[in-house]
Write a structure and sequence with these properties.
The complex is a heterodimer of chains A (96) and B (486).
Chain A (H helix, E strand, L loop, with lengths): L4 H10 L6 H18 L34 H5 L19
Helix pairs in contact in A: 1-2
Chain B lengths: L7 H10 L4 H19 L2 E4 L1 H16 L11 E5 L26 H8 L3 E6 L33 H8 L5 E6 L5 H7 L2 E4 L19 E6 L2 H11 L17 H4 L8 E4 L10 H16 L3 E4 L8 H16 L18 H12 L2 H14 L4 H22 L5 E5 L15 H6 L5 H6 L3 E8 L5 E8 L4 H14 L10
Parallel strand pairs in B: 2-3, 2-4, 7-8, 7-9
Antiparallel strand pairs in B: 1-3, 4-6, 5-6, 5-10, 9-11, 10-11
Classes of the chains: A mainly alpha (96), B alpha/beta (486).
Chain lengths: 96, 486
Amino acid sequence: MSLPRETVVKVAGLARLELTDSEIATFSQQLGGILDYVAMLDELDTTAVEPMVHAIELTNVLREDTLVPSLPREDGLKNAPKQDGRYFLVPAILEG
Amino acid sequence: MGLVDLSASELLDQLRSGKVSSLEVTQACLDAIAARDPAIHAFLHVDADDALNQAAAIDDRRAKGEPLGLLAGLPIALKDVVCQRGQPATCASRMLERFVAPYDAHAVTKLRQADAVLLGRTNLDEFAMGSSSENSAFGVTRNPWDPSRIPGGSSAGSAAAVAARMTPISLGSDTGGSIRQPAGLCGIVGMKPTYGRISRYGLIAYASSLDQIGAFGTDVRSVATAIEAMSGHDGRDSTSVNQPVVELSKTVDQPLKGLKIGIVPEHFGAGLDSEIAAAVQKAIDVYKHLGAEVREVTLPHAKYCIATYYLIACSEASSNLSRYDGVHYGHRAESFENLTEMYAKSRGEAFGPEVKRRIMLGTYALSTGYYDQYYVKALKVRRLIRQDFDAAFEQVDVIAGPVTPTAAFPIGEKANDPLAMYLGDIYTISANLAGLPAIALPCGFTTNNLPIGMQLQGRPFDEERVLRAARMFEAATDWHTRKPSG
């Protein structure tokens, strides 16, 4: 099976991922093939099985709420594509 | 034989006794990198001055008689996916091409506390997604045994650097086999400890419920020492487990009495290369000869592990990699109309094909209408896989089997067939799903002189027994002493 082109485009939109036409065509084939393969899980009746989200099933890990130094602002901004020494700069999101 | 031909544990003995200095060992590694790495491409970044300064400082402290850590003076290479303050951490991605880590990962802090010399940053499949290094944005790493073949992945550079004797040990990360598979294909020892044993703080995330840091070396004792040095609780990783750290470097040489080894018929089925099957069978015979009891155990859900893994890992990846938005760090597109387009273009331009493929699969599996069918279903099968292991470990102490179904394959062979590439992870993936400690070690060679690895998997937090069992085999054989020519 291949994944319909419109599904690939929709998923790419959800993932905020711009794809070229040739990538859309390739992924349509490849993701379809992978989904065919993973369909083998349907052979298993798992109605009575609890999902396992982690290998070590810890709950409620608590620690003291103590103040510790955090990353200095300068270090936090250092890798930003655009910043003004105080803030991360992004394009305006409100028109007008 | 030069300094670089010694194992980490041999070098540590010589460093402690004062026979060699850290400066000499570090310089020998830098010389080996200069001579050999142009043909291998294991390293993405080497800061020679920084490494030599670290070495000189440790030599100085040793001369003053100060107490030193477990790895004092020993060079270690780091997979370019853990943060080391002031050094690049690119994840072999255009996305992080100019990223410089602002802090140390916990494992790196532990290595500094152990007085290791941080030598350089190694190549990998982009964001640790892949099994060959062909997904690196900065070029493929070559297998030191045959440069026309892949070294395995994703910790390709860390494995190849140790195999080619450019560093005695290295750090890797393993989400579905990314330490054990390249260790097996490069003829060295590599271990992924139990999930939670080594903090993931500062390890750039791929699939958080599966990612685990581990180590490579040329013998079991070296790997035991590195794992011991990096282990321990860290409050900054809520999945880091607060369990006492065993002195693995001291116990590793003690043979186990009454060792029970499990073999799994599912591991020797269709798809396994006959030379690998024969080598692993011979290795199991070595254990019999050493007095171990070998029993058959079954893992009935083994065939579902790849499907389960790719659904869970890609779902987690699609969530984890949403942080690359062109705002806080990483690539930002030059031109865009609005914020949404800035995100989509930045990500579309900077991620490679395999990363995009996994983000797409994960986003699909988590999307409305498919969440229960794919993601939750995979989480349920994950529990069945874990229960298989729990039952098996009631009967045996470790499970022995092959690391990979085939030896190292030629560069390009599987590059256009992602599913074929995924199927190569069939023996390694379940240890991540179940959170088990597992080690790969050399157990033979093919007629083409390519390394064959054996995998031992153990109970959660039983690294000690896995390492001692591995060392028993190593002490009785000499596969680990072979090294590639050139």
